[in-house]
Amino acid sequence: MSYTALYRKWRPLVFEDVVEQEHVVKTLRNSVNTERIAHAYLFCGTRGTGKTTLAKIFSRAINCLSPKNGDPCNECEVCKGILANSILDVIEIDAASNNSVDNVREIRDEVIYAPTQAKYKVYIIDEVHMLSIGAFNALLKTLEEPPEHVVFILATTDPHKLPATILSRCQRFDLRRITVESIIDRVTRIAQANGVGLQKEAARLIAKMSDGALRDAISILDQCISLGNKEISYNDVLAVIGIVNDDFIARMVDALVEKNVNMILKLVDTLVMDGKNIAQFVSDVVQYYRNLLICKIADKPDDIIETSDELIDRMKQQGKSLAHDEIIYVIKELSALESSLKWAIQPRILLEVSLIKICECKFELHSGDIMERLCALEKKLNNATLTMRNTTDNNTLNTINSEKEIKPDKKAGIVKSHVKPSAPGKGVENWDAVVNELKSLGRMVIYTNLIGTKAIELDSNFIGIVFGSDMGFNKMLVSKAENLEVIEGIVAKKLGREVRVKCIDENSVNSNSQDANGQAEQDKDELIEKAQDIAKRLNIPVNVIDD
Predict the structure, then answer these.
(1) Start-to-end C-alpha separation, the chain
(2) Cβ-Cβ contacts under 8 Å for 188 (sequence gap 6 or more)
(3) Worst-scoring range by mean pLDDT, 72-76, 183-187, 218-222, 273-277?
(4) Whole-angstrom distance, CA of residue 379 vs CA of residue 252
(5) pTM
(6) With contact defined as beta carbons under 8 Å apart, do 465 and 472 qualify?
(7) Topology of the domain covering 6-174
(8) How far apart are CA 309 and CA 246, in angstroms?
């Protein structure tokens, strides 16, 4: 007998074995138990979530001679006939290859005939969204008023492509993606049943790569079992899938953070020579940067990111050397590259160019980001023994200064701090001129809603437009992105510098201004203290002068 793929061999035969679709299973079981069988069902969901499996189980359950709690018995003559494809009353149709009007007309002509052995004649139409417009129109009337002995079960990954007239005539069920933990549990059971050990890290990698599709996970496992090893390791799965491990991606991110182009090119060469999929690698790096962003902004990233604690700790350290804007920029650049790679003739060149472009992009760091990078540098100093000459010390200080926006004065040993304290609550002198400029430009909607407002400095980068307690509607209109963009352009012209504009309530100004002043001074003091401490460790005399 020929070999049967694992995903077919382990396809559930009863509702109880279906993974994580309880909301659908419960309804279908009740339909069988109460004999309230609708004439049309629609199963929606991504690949490998159980659409066709549920359709097959349901088609047997409604025809079973002795159903058990809504499940087919799989032992009666009808169930065995349907499983063996010897009963022609259950018809499976692939709409991807049978999508013409003529194919649907054949169905329309056949439904009038009663089933030969089963109670219901069931039509399972897979990938139904692939039907042509003409085929949908031909199916519509039959779907709306089919004979009592006919049940239609439609399955699709793209329900939005179905006409509303079709959707309105079906009972719709949306299947969920299967969680990583459930996939790990199922593939582990399958591996054990096949006499093969599966390491926990390998099972988790299979689950992550399947992207919520259990069928994909079982197919990957099937391929891993074909290697012939008694135990499947993490590296075995990597070899089968053709992707790199997390350590390789982390090294690439380190090289990007350090702007080390030579290391980046070496890693790309390793990637290509090992035969790894470049598009998959880019996708993995995008995911890695997404996790970096979560590590920076989330209180408990462990609850959101599916990876090891060691890697999360490494991401947190890497994130200290990156600004939020830089992470977002890299995600956008690599996402655009991911789309381009689908049509690329030379994917390696595109990857190298994109990574070099990322290295050459510079970002302004806020004081908080500078503090994080100073902390990272301090940690490196704690873990290393530095033996440096005075000339080396000076070069190192220059490097630190250029990265941290702390610039050396012409006099030796004097450092000027360019972290300018903000003055929350200070009024913007040219605000009336800004409002009048809007009027002269014909921006009457913005102008009329700014009458009676004032503007204050929130910090060196932001200006707040203060609205009175009775101006909530005016604030809502001005807060639209397109209106703020116009205001920012005029304010920048009047003040001679780029600023961002926020709309705030009058009540919040007084309560926040004192806190903001204190926090700004505290942040500034911590930054200067950290810079002095590093200079002291490098044995360099430093004086800090505010300018």
Answers:
(1) 85
(2) 198, 203
(3) 273-277
(4) 21
(5) 0.60
(6) no
(7) Rossmann fold (3.40.50)
(8) 12
